[in-house]
Amino acid sequence: MTTMKKIFNFSVLALLFMSVLSCSSDDDITIVESDSAPVLISPEDGSSIVLSPDLSDNPALTLVWDHSVYTVDTEIDYTIEMAVAETDFASPTIAGTTTTHVYSLNVEELNTVASNLELTPFESSAVEVRIVSSLGDNGDLAMISNVITINITPYTTESPKLWIPGGYQPTSGYGPDAFTHSTAPTLSAVAYGDVDFEGYMYIANDITNPDNGFKFSSQANWDGTNYGQGTADGELSSDGGAANLVADAGYYLVKVNTDALTYSLTPAEWGVVGYATTGNDDGWNNSTPMTYNIDNKVWETTITLSDGEFKFRANNAWDINLGAGGSENNLSYGGDNITATAGTYKITLDLSNPRNYTYTIELQ
Fold first, then answer.
1. How many CB atoms lie within 10 A of CB 4?
2. Signal peptide location in the record (predicted)?
3. Which end of the chain is more exposed for a tag (fewer CB within 10 A), N or C?
């Protein structure tokens, strides 16, 4: 009987000890709760910002907000979200993250955000801004601030392009598939807003059936404006149902004006011309023909040159000629003569990048 009492007493003591430990563990648990969300206080709602590439490093936008409040003193993560106005932040862009209550973007950074939001360059667009606070790597206990609207006028330094998808592509070195924008040649304007486009294209075989023809597309897909045959030769229609354009086989200088709805295809067979090609002034009278390489999309020739100068010209005439441009191996219309030293060279002329024409000269 005495033994049973001892066992009972030990059991009671063990239970009491475990109870004390359990209570002690519960007392050590800290529960973190969100209390109040961040409040955006600057800039003023409705502020307007016009961005310029000339001021890319200048401050453009500084956001200031009151801290979020949680029930413990801990580091808070803040995420700056921006979205096109009236989209309910369905596809926001993250402009930055911080652990402070101030965040600044310079002109270039804010313009990048605008580009990510697909805002139209040089037009004012309304953008909504909010701050999201959270704790830890998993973004726990997120709280969202009030929303303010700012009006952003972004810029672009890219020149607009036109794509030339068509049935001629597989046989002309522009990818295995017809009517494919991603492998089609392109035209380029000088700057955003300009309507005069230029570039070069090669057509291996005569296009006699419009079903195998081509169009000029304002986007790298069929979702933009697609220009087809107008009411007369050289005229375009922006009606998506317009017939495809046709042309004879050849290499062409292509020009398009999207305001006037006109286009031209000028045959351009290239050659090298100049004193260096003959060793005397007769070299300026006749071009040495070059051959088009369909795989590399360049004109090329292997030629023995004398000390002297040369240029590139089309159709053995001076209407279209290219000389030295503003940087090494760059070319411009009517540019300076290019100096050569005596030797045998492989010369290539690359016109595949519209308005950025280049050449190479490699001693053999």
1. 8
2. 1-24
3. N
> Does 16 reside within a domain?
no
Give CB contacts under 8 A, 24+ apart, made by 337-341.
Answer: 337/274, 337/309, 337/310, 337/311, 338/274, 338/309, 338/310, 338/311, 339/308, 339/309, 340/276, 340/305, 340/306, 340/307, 340/308, 340/309, 340/310, 341/305, 341/307
> Based on the domain organization, do 61 and 48 belong to the same domain?
yes
The b/e string for 245-280 (b: 16+ C-beta within 10 A; e otherwise) is: bbbeebbbbbebebeebebebeebbbbbbbbbbbee
Closest CA to 38 of 106, 127, 100, 90: 100
Q: Are strands 34-36 and 69-70 parallel, antiparallel or unpaired?
A: antiparallel
What are 185-200's pLDDT values in tens digits? 999 999 888 999 999 9
Same domain, 237 and 319: no
> Could you tell me which residue, 286 or 139, shows the higher pLDDT?
286
Helix, strand or coil, per DSSP, at residue 324 = strand
For position 157, what pLDDT does the model report? Answer: 86
What tens digit of pLDDT does each residue of 43-95 get?
999 999 999 999 999 999 999 999 878 866 678 999 999 999 999 999 999 99
DSSP for residue 336? B
- For the domain that residue 199 is a member of, what is the CATH number? 2.60.40.3620
Question: d(Cα 18, Cα 13) in Å, to the nearest integer?
Answer: 9
Q: What is the pLDDT of residue 137?
A: 74
What average pLDDT does the segment 212-221 reach? 96
DSSP-derived letter for residue 98 is E
CA angle 191, 192, 196 (to 5 degrees): 65
Phi-psi group of 274: left, alpha or beta (phi > 0 → left; psi -120 to 50 → alpha; rest → beta): left
* Residue 296 maps to a domain: yes
Helix, strand, coil share (%) of the chain residues, nearest 5: 15, 40, 40
